[in-house]
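Re: beginner question about structure tokens

> Can someone show what the tokenized structure looks like for a real chain? I only ever see the sequence side.

Sure, here's an example I had lying around. Input first:
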Amino acid sequence: MDNDFTQKLDRLREQINKRIEFYACEKNLNSMAEPVRYILLNKGKRLRPILTLLSAEVFGFNTKKTIDVALAFEILHNFTLVHDDIMDNDDFRRGKETVHKKWNVSVAILTGDALLGLAYKALTFAPSKKLSFLVELMNQTNLDLCDGQNLDKDFEKRKDVTTADYVKMISLKTAKLLSVCAKTGAFVSNASEREVQILENFGNELGLGFQIQDDLFDIVTEQNILGKDIGSDLAEGKKTFAYLHAVETLPKEKLNRFFTLTGKGTISKTELEEAKKILYENGTIQICEKEMNFHFSNAEKCLFELKDKNTKNLHNFLNLVVTRKF
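And the corresponding structure tokens:
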């Protein structure tokens, strides 16, 4: 990643974080102000709003014209995370206590609801001619995210989940929001219908690769880089792409051993190394890498379809995701 793009990302994050304070300091939040600010002012990578802004730039719109729409979907994302953390009973997110852990479940539910209201407020800053479409897009995105989370929870109880089922789930839970962010940036900046579709496809492929990449990180990344216990997905027996591929392809004896090592809630370093060895020898890790790179390659192909546009920064953004270490 070149230095100019790094500086650009820093500027965009600064603008995003400054503008999001406007929503975090909404005067009508009253008793919900503290937990809402706790979420919104927790400065993450802001990849989703950055993607929206970079997509808009391709078609000549600047940050000032698109930042509120970008934040609408970022706030929607945070709304889903607060509720997901309750369902998953997670104690930490981004190194901080989750809302239901710091306060309680009731406060967390209401915080999520308040964030959804703020997401719609951010949409009202969109050009009036675009608003009806964006409201419908927000509604459908929210429904799809709920569907994806429900499938993910349902997978915990099912024994017949396939890798194809998993790809469908992450297309709703992870890829959907990235595709919508890229699509929105193009739409608000008056791109053609074809160009909007290309950016939507780009975001979808980027999101699919992103999630499978995350699955791999849990297995192959060093703990000091990942920032959390490696092998946590294997310990829980979470039905990731790697886990499901192993279930579909391992011979019976190896599969039984794999089941013995995983899904107990904890996994020792020795057990993790043995599980990893089984996955490598079976070709599962290699298949995951192939699937991940297939989607990243498809994302790049989408950008090449925009031959007459300057997509350099979107190429840089894609490379940022492809080369990330955690």
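Each token stands for a local structural state, so reading them left to right follows the chain. DSSP finds 16 helices and two strands in the chain.
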